[in-house]
Design a protein that fits this description.
alpha+beta, 3 helices, Alpha-D-Glucose-1,6-Bisphosphate, Chain A, domain 4
Length: 151
């Protein structure tokens, strides 16, 4: 039996098209989730995210619905993390809510031993996305290596 997916839901005070841009434009993504991002935001395109100057997550884009949905595979290139590249699936779903957006992140197929760390990480990075997409400026990322921090 597959583990229950990890789900995080947030409200962002910005329209879906603005939030979506922060999910598919590597120059915008790097401001909330990494120190280096490579993304070809079309089905079959590559995804590589270095969130902290030490680790790299990689996968492939599975689905892109402009301003509504992004799905990609996910895993860590360092085998010590217990989630091989492309072995899990991350879904971002955006729904208009008033003048803002309800973002639901669903991370599927995570090994039980990695759920807590991934949950903490997604909560952290979605908080940064919420600030940035709403027009704010998040502080430099405390999880990143000091010489690689964006803020």
């Amino acid at each position: 039996m597959a583990a229950e997916p990890l789900v995080r839901e947030i409200f962002i005070a910005a329209p879906p098209e603005r939030v979506f841009a922060f999910l598919v434009d590597p120059a915008k993504m790097v401001r909330w989730i990494g120190v280096h991002v490579e993304l070809d935001a079309r089905p079959g395109g590559i995804l590589r995210i270095d969130p902290n100057g030490r680790d790299v997550a990689s996968g492939k884009v599975l689905e892109v619905v402009p301003n509504a949905r992004l799905v990609f595979t996910w895993g860590w290139e360092n085998s010590a993390h217990g989630v091989p590249p492309g072995s899990t699936v991350v879904e971002f779903d955006l729904a208009p809510e008033g003048a803002g957006t309800r973002l639901t992140l669903t991370h599927r197929d995570l090994p039980d031993a990695t759920r807590e760390d991934h949950g903490t990480g997604w909560t952290h990075y979605l908080g940064r996305l919420r600030i940035l997409a709403a027009g704010g400026d998040p502080e430099p990322d405390p999880l990143a290596s000091p010489d690689t921090r964006h803020g």
